Fold:
Amino acid sequence: MRPGILFVLSGASGVGKGTIRSRLREQVPDVYHSVSVTSRAPRPGEREGADYFFRSREQVEAMARAGELIEWVEYVGNYYGIPRRPVDEKLARGRDVILEPETRGAKAVARLYPQAVLIFVIPPSLEALEKRLRTRRTETEETIRARLARAREEMQELHLYQYCILNDDAQRAAQDLVAIVRAERCQMSRVGPEMKRRILGE
Amino acid sequence: MRPGILFVLSGASGVGKGTIRSRLREQVPDVYHSVSVTSRAPRPGEREGADYFFRSREQVEAMARAGELIEWVEYVGNYYGIPRRPVDEKLARGRDVILEPETRGAKAVARLYPQAVLIFVIPPSLEALEKRLRTRRTETEETIRARLARAREEMQELHLYQYCILNDDAQRAAQDLVAIVRAERCQMSRVGPEMKRRILGE
Structure:
């Protein structure tokens, strides 16, 4: 059995990572989508363990101190973190995993998991990204400006990523992600030994 | 504009490369499928420039001497070769190209084009491969035995290839090839500079 592949989908806030990832879930259902832990209260309809693991601030801090989080951030007064154990367990069992951290988090993941496949989602333009952020209507003017400045900075770090998906069309971008997952599963370095055994019975 | 990507699809004779490649043609029509030159006579329905370039033995030999063939082999008394110029022209214009050489030819291609993406198609088993070769009814017992021995040897050279497609189902295998083409087109090393220009206008 080959080890699971860790896919890391990142990119600017508002670029549409979530939509792309949810289409991957439909088409390649055997990829495990990591569930984050958060200290914010559940919104109506959100379920424990499906949308998030809901924990107190103190619990999240304790997890971070104990090294149980792959990465974590504080955002608008709440913690968001990626629990390490479920990811490691799935990978060890040969199951592929996808995470969706913001870009600083992606770097943290790459340090912990050097074999991770890093994928950057890019907006068609900064103007398009700004429009998407404004459409959300949850962001202040200041936050929008900060996010756009950050998006420009992130473009200087593209080389950290192995793949780039241009999200000018969500359907097409999702197909790119599906293709990347599928192609990575065909990498000789991953499947070669198994194939050799299969054919030669060695 | 990024340079075109050269895909090289190889594997044992009878493993089903042609079928897989023809499905790629339907789904990703902008990949240029190299047309080989041959010294054998056209079969009914075969068209010059579409199925093969039909040339005399002397013409093929002259092309080989002049370095106009990426690789060539003699098979059952006829020459088969891959003309170099159309491939180089497409690649220079940013068009992706796929070749389908046998495994010795794949190595020759890799020497000439170190950036080529090498893909190996693997049969579900040697028994399945034998069955396919026998179904063809064009091979002598001796040829079949030689091909099977060769298929075993080729398994020792899997590491030369970047990807491995298991052809236990032609439809699935074709989807793997489509995914590999699509994922390679998302490689940051290929598209990063263009994306950066696009977003930052640099």
User: Anything to note?
Assistant: Chain A has a mean pLDDT of 92.
